[in-house]
Fold this protein.
Amino acid sequence: MASMTKREKRSSMYTDNNHVLEPKVTVYPASNTDSNGKTTLLCLARDMFPDLVKISWKMEDANGRTVEVPKAETEVLEQRKEGQTTSMIIIDKEKTYRNKYICSVEHEGGPKDVEIPKDKPTEAPPTTMAAPTCLFRNYTQEPLTLNLTDDSSG
């Protein structure tokens, strides 16, 4: 019996004991601009097995060419926890008007490219909406107070 390579063993392990699950990829449009004219785009890959993914950012320029986002023009933050990876890119707000941005996720289950919408969250097919995340920034040193009101009683 021929011996298996590491890759074959790994692939066999996933197909024998567990099955590969493609990530569900959700992207969020530009956040409010900060005082430096920067904005944040967010990409979330979740519910996948194995939970290893590589997230990169691409953009489609005015000429229709898709290229990697130049690292010198951005700041990328990535957070990993079991079952999900989040990537945020901080870019000049003006560039979001000129270029289309794409979150590119590489996974054993196959690659996914999802375009960042201009106004609302989008998820790659199959479409199931993720619970929205409330993101806000306090650029002042003043404490914030949040008041919630229940309008459902009637």
Observations:
- The first helix runs from residue 6 to 16.
- Confidence is low (pLDDT under 50) at residues 4-17, 126-132.
- Helices lie at 6-16, 93-98.
